[in-house]
Specification:
This protein has 385 residues and is an alpha/beta fold. It has two domains: 59 residues, Orthogonal Bundle (DNA polymerase, domain 1); 275 residues, Alpha-Beta Barrel (TIM Barrel), CATH 3.20.20. It has eleven helices and 15 strands. The strands form three sheets. An eleven-stranded mixed beta sheet has the order 1-4-5-6-7-10-11-12-13-14-15. The protein is globular. The relative contact order is 0.13.
Length: 385
């Protein structure tokens, strides 16, 4: 079997994907070319009530609009048949409805993974992943265009952060994939390109809308937020009482080794980060997940086993071992699978709960940032080369 790829009609021509923000340049704006208009997709229920009041409409229209936008994931105002033509026209003229257009859809040979490259309204591109599991379908979404965290093994950081995503753009990744797969999305992971806690306000709005009973109503316990570790934001998220799963990108067994792999460790000591994780557990009662990307010859030794077990002792922790995905621009390679299993067994003997992440999508640039990176290289104009 081979990888299948769908090229989407109407895809931008060469050199147009970064018309508004070139790779490596920071553009802090959220939203598209018509960002001056209010994005209805980013509105929660209170925002819907305020909008309809401003338009002189009855309050019940707000709930209808929320259900159209978030429950039925309408792609245009004309779909909203319960509204008069006049109201649809006013909404169209005074607001915007964010809709992401797929540029590429890659399907793995096994058919259990799809990688999406979406065009944003401002010409930037982001990627998302759909995965089918025994327990249902999950979607991994991006929270930023690019990333400024600079992790040494990640393709997302190459070129830096361009801008934050709006809550609507984050939601749209889930909505468009649900429509395309024709399957209910049961789990959402904010683990794609970007650092979610670096886009905190939009992340929290995204979670609240995604879990609203009038929208997709996804369980908060079925949402995972992955972070490199920003202690003050971890504590703030704990105080929100959203009870989502917190996953810390740990990737090293000591502060010294973490600083070599993750620049953010130079700002936040590992003990600061772990203290914030303990606070999150105490505030929410949710078991902590620690992501550990295994890099051959870097963090996969017996010493790493001993240090990691000591680091997590006494925590209600689950370690997710991830054989690192090779990235063309990086020199890191994963250990052999026998070595990965041996690392798991040694941790388990020391009382640590461990699983190995099932490889999904390696044949379709499954690692964060790879598909976007290759697309930017393909579409680069002469001035970008």
């Amino acid at each position: 079997m081979s990888v299948t790829q769908r090229q989407i009609p109407g895809q931008p021509q060469r050199g147009t994907v970064t018309a508004q923000a070139a790779p490596g340049k920071t553009d802090e704006r959220c939203g598209g070319l018509d960002a001056a208009l209010q994005d209805v997709r980013s509105l929660d229920m209170d925002g819907m009530y305020a909008l309809m009041a401003a338009l002189g409409e009855k309050p019940y229209r707000a709930r209808q609009l929320f259900e159209w936008v978030h429950g039925r994931q309408a792609a245009e105002y004309e779909e909203m048949s319960s509204f008069s033509k006049g109201l649809r026209q006013r909404l169209s003229g005074q607001t915007r409805l964010t809709v992401l257009r797929p540029l590429k859809v890659l399907t793995s040979a096994r058919g259990d993974t799809r990688k999406y490259l979406f065009a944003l309204p401002d010409g930037n591109a982001i990627e998302s992943v759909w995965m089918r599991h025994d327990y249902g379908s999950s979607v991994c979404i991006s929270s930023q265009v690019g990333c400024r965290m600079g992790c040494a093994f990640c393709a997302s950081t190459i070129g830096g952060k361009i801008r934050d995503l709006t809550a609507g753009e984050m939601l749209e990744q889930v909505y468009r994939i649900a429509k395309d797969s024709e399957e209910r999305v049961s789990h959402v992971v904010v683990m794609g390109s970007g650092e979610p806690l670096d886009n905190y306000d939009q992340l929290v709005r995204f979670i609240r809308i995604l879990t609203d009973e009038h929208g997709l109503c996804i369980s908060r316990r079925s949402i995972t937020v992955s972070t490199c570790g920003i202690p003050e934001r971890i504590r703030q998220l704990a105080d929100e009482q959203l009870s989502v799963t917190l996953a810390l990108s740990l990737h090293a067994s000591s502060q010294e080794k973490r600083m070599r792999l993750m620049p953010i460790a130079r700002r936040y000591d590992l003990e600061q980060v772990l203290s914030a994780c303990r606070y999150y557990y105490e505030a929410t009662g949710r078991r902590l997940t620690f992501e550990y990307s295994l890099v051959a010859g870097v963090n996969d030794t017996d010493e790493d086993v001993r240090e990691l077990a000591a680091l997590l002792a006494g925590l209600d922790a689950h370690v997710n071992l991830i054989p690192v995905n090779p990235v063309e621009e990086r020199s890191f390679r994963p250990p052999a699978m026998e070595a990965v299993r041996a690392f798991q067994n040694k941790l388990e003997k020391r009382g640590i709960n461990v699983t190995i992440r099932r490889e999904m999508g390696a044949d379709i640039s499954g690692a964060c940032g790879q598909l976007r990176r290759s697309y930017l290289q393909e579409t680069a104009g002469p001035e970008d080369e």
